[in-house]
Amino acid sequence: MPALLPGNPQIASCILFLYASTYAQAQAPTQTGAVYTAVGSKASDSAPIDGTWEGELQFPAQTLRIVLHISGPINTLSATHDSPDQDSFGHRVDSITFNAPTLAFEITPLKVQFSGNLLSDGTISGTFVQRGRGIPLVLARSAGVVPPASGSVTDGRYHQDQTGIEWDVPAGFKVLSTTNYPGYNGWLTTLGDSENHIFSAWLARHKIMPNRIPAILDGEVPAKIKRRTGLDHYEVPPESVQKTVINGQQAIKATAYFNTGGKRSAELLTWVFTEHTVVHFYAMVEVESLADVQASFDQMVASATAP
Question: What is the pTM of this model?
């Protein structure tokens, strides 16, 4: 991996930052950026720097864009950042302040700091510093970069471009959509059939040590139960939980049950983890249709491959 700056081989020139983001980050945090107080401001002040800003980091081997999304009033600013040239979007900025004319922000895990002044021409000119070494960075207002979300079906097999995860499309089903969720660093693909049965797959990239995967899998079913607290009597029988291996990758499967509209329903659940990616398959169906739908769901899951 090339160095970000000469003499510091620990910093990727693909700075950006990025992104060995964890699956926990991909699992939908409740806010998209940290909230901090701007110096010397009033609660009613609006922020002259809110919006989307873009600049270029000129490294010896390559140029990388950085996009900063700033929101909120001046005394409670929050922000996220993108590295579109690395196909990474919606990552947290840990702190951000604006004390006119100076904008400052930090990305703590990456040891990144920026300080720059808002100039009369509307740009913010300053220095981007990582691990004590800096390069100039000028930010200008921008429309931002729309994160990609794409996949394709070839000979009945779906391939999601951003993660490389694939599976067979069950007979009678078709891919309805692939949607990007940059704030959560993941993609959602949905499939459906003529009877309005919906299969969903949440896909994300991350970096996890292999020895941590079993513990992460153990936490997925309890976390799902917590997220489903709005459903009536949502429960996962312990006997339905099964750790398994799917095409060489560690996985866990379970079936949940709940009440809806006076009927008993089920949710089929599977998580597949690798060092680099995760895919979570799930489908809700009435219990009376469970046997037929489960056959198609299991076919899709059993065919899944993840890099």
Answer: 0.59
